[in-house]
Task: structure prediction
Amino acid sequence: MFFWKFSDGTTVYSHARVEGGSPFAEHLRRELVSLAYGCGPLIWLTPGAHAVELDPCSDELLALWLEQEAKAQGLTITETDYTPHPVSMGATGGNQGFAAS
Result:
């Protein structure tokens, strides 16, 4: 299980467990509730061009989403134990650049 700590005191764990009472933590919770209703947050894989819906079980997508949301709110990730795992381009192609963990 991975974690991400933010400059406002919010902490998020794998599977999108959000801890904290800051406005940012509340924003993340609202976004995750909307996911349950089929209109969840998008993660931009290519800025302005290609987006996918957040899968809270994917640490890779969760990490990208958290980085994007923090940047939009003027926050930084102050501590994390998550490290993306690069993969080589196989015969099936693909361009996400991360392997499932």
